[in-house]
Amino acid sequence: MYIRGAPNVNIITDHKPLERIWQKPKPPLRIERWGLRLQPYKLKITYQPGSENPADFMSRHPSDNPVKSPGTIYSRTDKTIQKAIEFVRTGQWFKIKNITDLEIDIEELQALRSISGELVTYGDTILLRDNRIVLPSELRVRAVNIAHEGHQGITKTKAFLRSKIWFPGLNDRVDNAIKDCSACQSVTHTPKELNR
């Protein structure tokens, strides 16, 4: 979407064989299909060794300083998650009706209560549904955006998210994100109405 129609697009790669991929006289069918899909684009592939490639810096220069996971920090500040962790440990879900703190989402706690048999805690800050992290509210939009980066469809985006995380309303959040994605809408086929 971003490069279609651009006069020249330079792709810099540290994968040397990619530079000559289109020069083979009879490439495999898979590569021919790639070529057909890429015909509308004016691409120039340039090889640059990984040691000189700035995009490859992070894999070649890992940080020596351990960084706390942002998810842990957000979980500590998410009062709803913290209250759910407390209820998972004590089993006192009936105390939801006594909560007066406006920063705690009662509706979300009720949703967590309905699956309380599947919830476990890890440490003091992480709530899990089986083996998936119950994501704090501040990270949900970001997680959906990351899962949808490749502009996969609704089904694949949901499946990817469900393999790693869970939170109440995940399906609706993904549906809305994809419905609002201009790149996805530009390639979605809408059925034409029949003239009667």
UniProtKB/TrEMBL annotation:
Residue ranges annotated for the Integrase zinc-binding domain, each copy included = 136-187
Gene3D superfamilies, per the entry: 1.10.340.70
Q: Which stretches does the entry tag as region Disordered?
A: 52-71
Superkingdom of the source species: Eukaryota
Entries under InterPro entries matching the protein: Integrase_H2C2 (IPR041588), Retrovirus_Pol_polyprotein (IPR050951)
PANTHER family to which the protein is assigned, alphabetical:
INTEGRASE CATALYTIC DOMAIN-CONTAINING PROTEIN, PROTEIN CBG26694
- For this entry, the protein name equals Integrase zinc-binding domain-containing protein
